[in-house]
Amino acid sequence: MSGRTDSVAGPAEAEEAERAEPVIRHEEDAVDAEFHDEARRARWLATGTGALLTLAGVAAALLRLTGPAPALVPAAYATGAAVCAAAALLGARGRTRRALWLLIAGTMIMALGDQFD
Protein backbone atom coordinates (compact mmCIF):
# COMPACT_ATOMS: atom_id res chain seq x y z
CA MET A 1 0.00 0.00 0.00
CA SER A 2 1.08 3.48 -0.83
CA GLY A 3 0.68 6.48 1.44
CA ARG A 4 -0.39 8.80 -1.41
CA THR A 5 -3.72 10.56 -0.97
CA ASP A 6 -4.07 12.11 -4.42
CA SER A 7 -6.20 10.46 -7.06
CA VAL A 8 -3.72 10.85 -9.93
CA ALA A 9 -2.10 7.53 -10.81
CA GLY A 10 0.94 8.64 -12.77
CA PRO A 11 2.93 11.69 -13.92
CA ALA A 12 1.46 11.62 -17.43
CA GLU A 13 -2.06 11.86 -16.08
CA ALA A 14 -1.00 14.62 -13.66
CA GLU A 15 0.37 16.72 -16.55
CA GLU A 16 -2.82 16.15 -18.52
CA ALA A 17 -4.95 17.24 -15.56
CA GLU A 18 -2.86 20.41 -15.15
CA ARG A 19 -3.23 21.24 -18.84
CA ALA A 20 -7.01 20.78 -18.74
CA GLU A 21 -7.55 22.98 -15.70
CA PRO A 22 -6.58 26.39 -17.21
CA VAL A 23 -9.00 25.85 -20.09
CA ILE A 24 -11.89 25.60 -17.64
CA ARG A 25 -10.75 28.71 -15.84
CA HIS A 26 -10.37 30.53 -19.14
CA GLU A 27 -13.97 29.73 -20.08
CA GLU A 28 -15.18 30.94 -16.67
CA ASP A 29 -13.18 34.14 -17.09
CA ALA A 30 -14.74 34.68 -20.52
CA VAL A 31 -18.23 34.26 -19.07
CA ASP A 32 -17.41 36.67 -16.24
CA ALA A 33 -15.95 39.21 -18.67
CA GLU A 34 -19.05 38.96 -20.87
CA PHE A 35 -21.29 39.48 -17.84
CA HIS A 36 -19.31 42.54 -16.75
CA ASP A 37 -19.38 44.00 -20.26
CA GLU A 38 -23.15 43.55 -20.41
CA ALA A 39 -23.57 45.18 -16.99
CA ARG A 40 -21.36 48.09 -18.06
CA ARG A 41 -23.46 48.62 -21.20
CA ALA A 42 -26.65 48.58 -19.12
CA ARG A 43 -25.23 51.20 -16.76
CA TRP A 44 -24.17 53.45 -19.65
CA LEU A 45 -27.53 53.04 -21.35
CA ALA A 46 -29.50 53.88 -18.20
CA THR A 47 -27.27 56.85 -17.43
CA GLY A 48 -27.35 58.23 -20.97
CA THR A 49 -31.09 57.80 -21.38
CA GLY A 50 -31.73 59.42 -18.01
CA ALA A 51 -29.52 62.38 -18.87
CA LEU A 52 -31.17 62.80 -22.28
CA LEU A 53 -34.69 62.70 -20.84
CA THR A 54 -33.64 65.10 -18.08
CA LEU A 55 -32.38 67.62 -20.62
CA ALA A 56 -35.53 67.22 -22.71
CA GLY A 57 -37.73 67.72 -19.64
CA VAL A 58 -35.86 70.82 -18.50
CA ALA A 59 -35.99 72.30 -22.01
CA ALA A 60 -39.72 71.60 -22.28
CA ALA A 61 -40.33 73.11 -18.83
CA LEU A 62 -38.47 76.28 -19.79
CA LEU A 63 -40.33 76.56 -23.10
CA ARG A 64 -43.72 76.05 -21.45
CA LEU A 65 -42.83 78.47 -18.67
CA THR A 66 -42.35 81.32 -21.14
CA GLY A 67 -45.61 80.55 -22.99
CA PRO A 68 -49.26 80.92 -22.05
CA ALA A 69 -49.53 77.39 -20.61
CA PRO A 70 -50.93 76.83 -17.09
CA ALA A 71 -48.38 76.62 -14.28
CA LEU A 72 -49.07 72.91 -13.84
CA VAL A 73 -47.53 72.09 -17.23
CA PRO A 74 -43.95 73.33 -16.58
CA ALA A 75 -44.15 71.88 -13.07
CA ALA A 76 -45.00 68.45 -14.50
CA TYR A 77 -42.13 68.65 -16.98
CA ALA A 78 -39.71 69.74 -14.25
CA THR A 79 -40.90 66.95 -11.94
CA GLY A 80 -40.51 64.37 -14.71
CA ALA A 81 -37.03 65.72 -15.44
CA ALA A 82 -36.09 65.40 -11.76
CA VAL A 83 -37.31 61.78 -11.71
CA CYS A 84 -35.27 61.06 -14.85
CA ALA A 85 -32.21 62.68 -13.26
CA ALA A 86 -32.62 60.36 -10.27
CA ALA A 87 -32.85 57.45 -12.71
CA ALA A 88 -29.60 58.54 -14.34
CA LEU A 89 -27.89 58.56 -10.95
CA LEU A 90 -29.24 55.13 -10.08
CA GLY A 91 -28.17 53.81 -13.46
CA ALA A 92 -24.65 55.09 -12.94
CA ARG A 93 -24.50 53.24 -9.63
CA GLY A 94 -25.60 49.98 -11.20
CA ARG A 95 -29.25 49.93 -10.15
CA THR A 96 -30.42 49.58 -13.72
CA ARG A 97 -33.76 47.88 -13.02
CA ARG A 98 -34.85 50.66 -10.67
CA ALA A 99 -33.49 53.23 -13.10
CA LEU A 100 -35.64 51.76 -15.87
CA TRP A 101 -38.79 52.07 -13.77
CA LEU A 102 -37.91 55.64 -12.82
CA LEU A 103 -37.32 56.50 -16.48
CA ILE A 104 -40.77 55.15 -17.30
CA ALA A 105 -42.34 57.08 -14.41
CA GLY A 106 -40.55 60.31 -15.35
CA THR A 107 -41.63 60.04 -18.97
CA MET A 108 -45.22 59.37 -17.89
CA ILE A 109 -45.17 62.44 -15.64
CA MET A 110 -43.94 64.58 -18.55
CA ALA A 111 -46.62 63.10 -20.82
CA LEU A 112 -49.24 63.90 -18.18
CA GLY A 113 -48.01 67.48 -18.11
CA ASP A 114 -48.39 67.60 -21.87
CA GLN A 115 -52.04 66.56 -21.49
CA PHE A 116 -52.73 69.62 -19.32
CA ASP A 117 -51.57 71.93 -22.09
- H/E element sequence: HHH
Q: State the helical fraction.
A: over 70%
Shape: rod-shaped
What is the C-alpha radius of gyration, as a whole number of Å? 27 Å
Summary keywords:
mainly alpha
Structural summary, described in words:
This protein has 117 residues and is mostly helical. It has helices at residues 11-66, 72-92, 96-115. Helix 1 packs parallel to helix 3 (96-115) and helix 2 (72-92) packs antiparallel against helix 3 (96-115).
Please render the helix and strand layout as text.
Layout: H1 11-66, H2 72-92, H3 96-115
Helix pairs in contact: 1-2, 1-3, 2-3
Question: Can I get a quick summary?
Answer:
By secondary structure, the chain is an all-alpha fold. 83% of the residues lie in helices and 0% in strands.
